[in-house]
UniProtKB/TrEMBL annotation:
Coiled coil: 326-353
Transmembrane segments: none
Domain of life where this protein originates: Eukaryota
Record-annotated BBS7 helical hairpin domain positions: 590-703
Domain BBS7 platform: 485-587
One Gene Ontology cellular component annotation held by this UniProt entry: membrane
Name of the protein described by the UniProt record: Bardet-Biedl syndrome 7 protein
Keywords carried by this UniProt record: Coiled coil
One of the protein's GO biological processes: intracellular protein localization
Amino acid sequence: QVGVTAQKTMRLLPASGRKATQKVVVGDQDGVITCFGIKKGEAVTVFKTLPGQKITRLELGGALNTPQEKIFVATGSEVRGFTKRGKQFLSFETNLTESIKAMYVHISGADLFLCASYIYNHYCDCKDQHYYLSGDKINDVLCLPVDKVNCITPVLACQDRVLRVLQGSDLLYEVEVPGPPTVLALNNGNGGDSGEEIVYGTSDGQLGLIQITGSKSIPKWEIGNERKRGGILCIDSFDILGDGVKELLIGRDDGMLEIYTFESADDPVLRYDHALSESIASIQGGCVGKEGYDEILASTYSGWLTGLTTEPVHREGGSGEELKLSQEMQSKISSLRNELEHLQIKVLQEREKYQQSSQSSTAVSSVPVFSVNDKFTLNKDDASYSLILEVQTAIDNVLVQSDVPIDLLDVDKNSAVVSFSSCDSEPNSNFLLATYRCQANTTRLELKVRSIEGQYGTLQAYVTPRIQPKTCQVHQYQIKPLSLHQRTHSIDHDRPMNTLTLKGHFSFAEIHSWVVFCLPEVPEKTPAGESVTFYFQNTFLGTQLESTYRKGEGCFKSDNISTISILKDVLSKEATKRKINLNISYDVNEESVKHTLKLIHPKLEYQKLLAKKVHLIDALRELQVHEGNVDFLLPKYRSILEEADQLLEEYKRQPAHLERLYGMITDLFIDKFKFKGTNVKTKVPLLLEILDGCDQDGLIAFFEAA
């Protein structure tokens, strides 16, 4: 185990001889680079550097046609180079004002590609060559192999679901991908036969292969995330099955390690997976522990390095004999046991020492520092937010507090015990207080919440790990007014749209900051240029929003009148705070209300039917016990009994779903008339009565008659 590690900070050095094992080099957030090999199952350190600023990336490089065994690390705004023996040969202080987030070293070893949040820089022999300012945060960078493509083609993976292909300091073209790309890798480790093939992984767990030609991109395959697994953090190509074709090794942020094989020429197939307990930051294939046996090496967030080997652990015994563990394995286990006992004794001694010293009046307890890796993202499938908290030591408990009404949803993978505290929402606007108590060795906790659009505020997580003295860290997450909207590449322009137009004396930066306040997934930096357009989709209903704005003017179009109403309220409130006079005009399309109701109604019917079925289950089960069999029941009731467990599971997973839909229809009703200047709140009870028993046409008729 090393310190906490960031994404892409562990690599295998090339083997020196033909059969020799490979050394592992890893950089951690204490700034230490550790290089070690494995001899007889024990880690033997080759070199270790002194601590410093945290290491954000580690890459290998070297001259063309020589082994790639020079080690390059990015730390702060500096790049350092080390030989495989640990001697430093390069210290290059870049002109970047913030720390490096992504780095790529080209095979030639002379080209260095660095990215901070929005800035890309290309250096050749440590001299600044090219510069590019991206429209959104850059998550990863790589360059197509020059020996195959004959020109330098950098590719940036950007948060706004786009790969940007550059030429020099200019944008060549953009490639739209299905989710925010978090990691890029050359296909097969070399870009494929053409050298133009790139594999990307997204933060919502999707995977794809794209060919990047000089003029356009050609998508080859795409794999969605049907299994609802975590986001992808690392990719490697390695022939672990020994069949002459390189497999794809994938590491995810929920600890899933996957191997995809290419059995036919088409899409890759998942052949093998293995669950680790924390997110996998780096993954590599190679020969480490024993020559002749390949393995997959993964480094996880808290700094554990884990190897999965192809070496058979059991020696085949005779017929019927129990499989015996090899001698090597047995001795390894006993040495681990000894080590554990030593550590336990040491911990006890230190604890006693601490207790004694804490009784003296001069001793002061220092607050232990621990790092938390968190991710708060909107899921497209069920319009809920996932909050993932990962701590370098075991979590004791997490307290979740919110000043806006939100629902906590069930997560299958979550083994923590949750308890709710009643809260008074009046004086200190508390709407949720829940405590998750974790089991002994939990280092990763996943929660799911669903917010209500139009209600905005802050969700806070108080994380307390199992360390002495007790310490707690608070993490805050903004729940935005239009929290269920997600950025998309394009929208359907044929839908009936409502328009909201703002005019006034405000700058481009000011209106951009208001849009950032209202909507998720908008880059915080003001975009370059005179004006900008963003498209969004509501993940719960499928309605859409187009926002275009520049200095002194903003135009927002949506087929959902409630979206426009929320924007109008929030934007005018924000402008009033800054004493800016806004001229607001709107154009309401009557057809849009009908259109939105048609989107909501099928969902409403489905949920009403589900609730009805769930209410019948107990009665039907009682009948079943009473009568002994259920042959006399109608087929529809029999099917309810057969699917009872699934129905209950689904109902439990989405509490308050029906109330949310009722709320949306009520808001739609109030907002429709609000824009006409009528207050219809007195008619809401009547609407709720109608909702309980009427079909789509009756509902539309009520909206029109009111």
